[in-house]
Amino acid sequence: AMALSGVRVLELAGLAPAPLCGMILADFGAQVVRVDRLSRSAAASAHADVQARGKRSLALDLKRPQGTAALRRLCGKADVLIEPFRHGVMERLGLGPEVLLQENPRLIYARLTGFGQTGKYAKSAGHDINYLALSGVLSKLGRKNENPYAPVNLLADFAGGGVMCALGIVIALFERARSGRGQVIDASMVEGVAYLSSFLWKSQNLGLWSQPRGENLLDSGAPFYEIYRTSDGKFMAVGAIEPKFYNQLIKGLGLNLDELPFQMSFSSWPEMKKTFASIFAQKTQAEWCSIFDSTDACVTPVLSFGDAASHQHNKERSSFIKNDQGEVSPRPAPVLSRTPAVPSRERDPFIGEHTEEILLEYGFTKQEIAKLYSDKAIEFKNLKANL
């Protein structure tokens, strides 16, 4: 059995962070039901979930009282509810935590939002770049003399949002094993990414960030912590911080350490960057790999998704998996020795594909399901053409 086997999760369909949270739980064994909007709604088609691995789909219309009543009943038998809506939406539906936890005191009610449940921006719209900005982290990202730079939407949406929320759920499940009681999780992406950046906050007095953005040790200021273009238009990532690693970098580049400025001479860094760049530009990525792969110079190739999946190291660890449709994606991490994740290799579910199956599992009778269907509160994938 996987670590989360037997845990029943209801994930209300939403954008990227909540689906990742649900997929993590599913990968490690939880029975995750994605509660979808009916497929005929514009919102359903606009919010395609590409992180539905291992989930089943129940199509429910929460705009109808019969739909909200059904979800309320489902929550009575669930362990976890993940809801991604803006502050107040669930309360307006009569599905707030004060209602659902009274009916199911063991329920873990996870609220995953950008700004959190309280505060000035609690009811405001936003995206990863906004949460990253408010956390203070965005001010640290970017090169010298350039605007701050948001690295796609990984940090706030997924790391600060989806992953932190999954961590909160697992912590709450662990605590519930002792107390028998559920609780509400207020997962704010602003706070999640701020917490993720604790090292940046706590290292400010160490001098690591004393220079303007883009001129420090770890933010592209140092020549030995940088990305360089190769002769074939590819790139190598250099992270030779410690002197013993830096020495091996210098050796691999064919330079003489005694003829170079001191490694930590800030004023020499711009010129050293030019020197390193000119040398890296003389060989292909493969040639540099042959030079550095057997060393501790902390130099690695910058790989495309396709190259990452086929790289020898990743192949030896089976770091990427292929589903039944031939799609490649990262395998769940971290790896557990005794109860590892066994991710589903089946295709992602269609909206409403498992509606009847799930409702029966949660105690609904066939007559009740037929009534919900006639009331247009649910949808079956196999009956879609008749709707």
Automatic annotation (TrEMBL):
InterPro entries: CoA-transferase_III, CoA-Trfase_fam_III, CoA-Trfase_III_dom3_sf, CoA-Trfase_III_dom_1_sf. One of its GO terms (biological process) is bile acid metabolic process. Coiled coil: none annotated. The gene is Amacr. PANTHER family: ALPHA-METHYLACYL-COA RACEMASE, SUCCINYL-COA--D-CITRAMALATE COA-TRANSFERASE. Its EC number is 5.1.99.4. Belongs to the CoA-transferase III family. One of its GO terms (cellular component) is mitochondrion. It catalyses: (25R)-3alpha,7alpha,12alpha-trihydroxy-5beta-cholestan-26-oyl-CoA = (25S)-3alpha,7alpha,12alpha-trihydroxy-5beta-cholestan-26-oyl-CoA; a (2S)-2-methylacyl-CoA = a (2R)-2-methylacyl-CoA; (2R,6)-dimethylheptanoyl-CoA = (2S,6)-dimethylheptanoyl-CoA. It is an enzyme of class 5 (isomerase). This is Alpha-methylacyl-CoA racemase. Pathway: Lipid metabolism; bile acid biosynthesis. Residues 315-347 are annotated as: Disordered. GO terms for molecular function: alpha-methylacyl-CoA racemase activity. Keywords: Isomerase. Pfam families: CoA_transf_3. It comes from Irena cyanogastra. Catalyzes the interconversion of (R)- and (S)-stereoisomers of alpha-methyl-branched-chain fatty acyl-CoA esters. Acts only on coenzyme A thioesters, not on free fatty acids, and accepts as substrates a wide range of alpha-methylacyl-CoAs, including pristanoyl-CoA, trihydroxycoprostanoyl-CoA (an intermediate in bile acid synthesis), and arylpropionic acids like the anti-inflammatory drug ibuprofen (2-(4-isobutylphenyl)propionic acid) but neither 3-methyl-branched nor linear-chain acyl-CoAs.
